[in-house]
Amino acid sequence: MPILMAMGNWTRISEFILISFSSLPTEIQSLLFLTFLTIYLVTLMGNSLIILVTLADPMLHSPMYFFLRNLSFLEIGFNLVIVPKMLGTLLAQDTTISFLGCATQMYFFFFFGVAECFLLATMAYDRYVAICSPLHYPVIMNQRTRAKLAAASWFPGFPVATVQTTWLFSFPFCGTNKVNHFFCDSPPVLRLVCADTALFEIYAIVGTILVVMVPCLLILCSYTHIAAAILKIPSAKGKHKAFSTCSSHLLVVSLFYISSSLTYFRPKSNNSPDSKKLLSLFYTVVTPMLNPIIYSLRNSEVKNALSRTFHRVLALRNCIP
């Protein structure tokens, strides 16, 4: 299939070339492939394990672990959208991606990114109710409410991804088809457009600020009330126990928001393609791996559930003749 097809005065691009890490020596690319493959497998196994354990262990059927399970589903989806293609470019130097493939990758990148912002805010609200209204927590966060909150977290990704991806790929592309990134993110693809994109850029900036800031403000509001409630607890042991239920979520939120904000809100003069690739790697590849590790190592309930599940599996294997 030809890369470029003439169409009137424009040249219609039928596929893109992902620059990825092609400027690096082959040895470095091989090392990156092994590193990212390991991270990818750990991410899939870690998040799958979180999903299985929170489903299998009755002690983890609380709202907190229901939302954690949603987060793990989301992280698996996020990884499947980005990493397999990146591994292909490193191993087989298969840097081409079809027009439709690029649009699809961008769509699901937006969808999962927006959903994660709102899901982290929902998880903060869950911690707020648990600490500030512990006696009413089971009533407020009943099965129906948690299902509605989860749906409300996932839903905003659909309109944002649909509008932004459809609008961007409706522009004419001409000249080079080289995307200076390891996946089809909006800014590097937008540079290939040969039309006036001012209105789209305003929409993208405003949309990004709203998608990031609204959940961020909800998280800050929740934790302001949580901090006030914890400070009122008289004993140090009680304060530590209350804070420990939030520490994993706080760490996950910090990793996600710091890395994504540094990627998309830095001045253009300080935002070189290589530095953006590095920051993008952190929140698209590294963070999804760290989330299950953080929730496993810093949460005694998850560690105990993993231990119980492991012993049950061993017992079942010993019972099989």
UniProtKB/TrEMBL annotation:
Q: What is its main location?
A: membrane
Topology relative to the lipid bilayer, per the entry, is:
Multi-pass membrane protein
**Record localization:** Cell membrane
Q: Does the keyword Transmembrane apply?
A: yes
Recorded hits in CDD domains, A to Z, give: 7tmA_OR10A-like
Keyword line: Cell membrane, G-protein coupled receptor, Membrane, Olfaction, Receptor, Sensory transduction, Transducer, Transmembrane, Transmembrane helix
Q: Which domain of life is it from?
A: Eukaryota
Gene Ontology terms for molecular function: G protein-coupled receptor activity; olfactory receptor activity
GO CC annotation terms, alphabetical: plasma membrane
> G-protein coupled receptors family 1 profile domain location, by residue?
46-295
TM segment ranges:
31-55, 67-87, 107-128, 149-169, 202-230, 242-258, 278-297
Family indicated by similarity:
Belongs to the G-protein coupled receptor 1 family.
Name of the protein this chain belongs to: Olfactory receptor
Primary gene name? LOC116525346
